[in-house]
Amino acid sequence: MDDNAKATFPARAKDSATRRLSHGMAIPAILIALWLPAQPRAEAQEYTLIEIGPIGGGTGSAGADLNASGQAIATCNTATSGETRTVFYSNGYRADIGTMGEQMTVGAAINDSAQIVGASVTPPGAVTGFLYAGGVFTNLGSLGGNDTHPRGINSTGQVVGQSLPAVGAYNYHAFLWQAGAMTDLGVLPGGAGSVAGDINDAGQIAGMSAVPGGETHIALWSGGTITDLGTLGGISGMAHAINESGAIVGQSKTAAFFDHAFLWTAAAGLTDLGTFGGNLSAASDINSQGVVVGQADITSGAAHAFIWDATNGMRDLNDLLADPNWTLTSAEAINDSGVVIATGFRGADVRAVLLTPIPAPTPTPTPCCLPYGVPLISFLTIAAWLMCRFAAPIRRS
Q1: Which domains does the chain have, with CATH numbers?
Q2: To the nearest 10°, the Cα dihedral for 270, 275, 278, 282?
């Protein structure tokens, strides 16, 4: 054997062993692919549906809000013309919370302690903001005018919304109510009015404020400062909800003058969530996982309820219902368990509904065995070893 052959032999011997190994493993790898059962694909989440309201012989209801335990509120009409009431729902129990002596109560939000805020209306004029807890109504007062509209409440009982600052005023100001006192949150520099849409447990408040020139921009109040978050390119924007991470959702006009649902985060800024092919959409709520609900137009212009997340994008909740007899037009709120309160039609009847996710089945692996109980994987392991051990070496030239 010459020096060149001696120099190259170890490499060729190594190559020979590698080829025996690869040849030996090829057949088991193919057998594994052929014998192992195909893994089931993940199915789309489906929801069961429970109606909420109407009450007292009324004909319709609309969803408003729900809390972490699935307690919900809805606005329902009654058999008496012109009466609208707020209905509280909890685990099959429904109750009209009553009124402050007026004909109408419109619930807006409920916190985890089942405290409810909303507006009590006396036609044709005054609108009184209320806090309802333990069967007792509390008048929230006003910033000086005769209209107060609460919109959100956090777990500590802080309430936000909008109120007229004086009798005869027509530009609302955002307010924060706590411990019996209402505070004017102010407006962006040069603006004339503002609205607070929601508050999280950290005290961050999302809403909108007017700016010079008559436009309205999405606004964030945090740490005593109001920040202009802009719009999706159009002349107006309004935040409807803020989660515990400070992510904000709502609606904003685009440069094409159509309202679109948006998501704002400190990291990414404003994101247009789009539509189902129509012109309009609006986001109503966001949970702590960043899942968003709202409504969006389909190509015909009809509004459909949507659910959105970063993985799946915007999905039509109607496609995820176990009951196909409903058409959901909007989704108002979602909690961290994925329960959604929405509004929809069954035939001509409009109803508030509670949607509960159906748990996805956990696939059970089917053991693959050869006759006489020899596990397939063990057999293939042995076969691979035998092929590597006894495969003929590649002959050197």
Answers
A1: 47-357 (2.120.10.30)
A2: -70
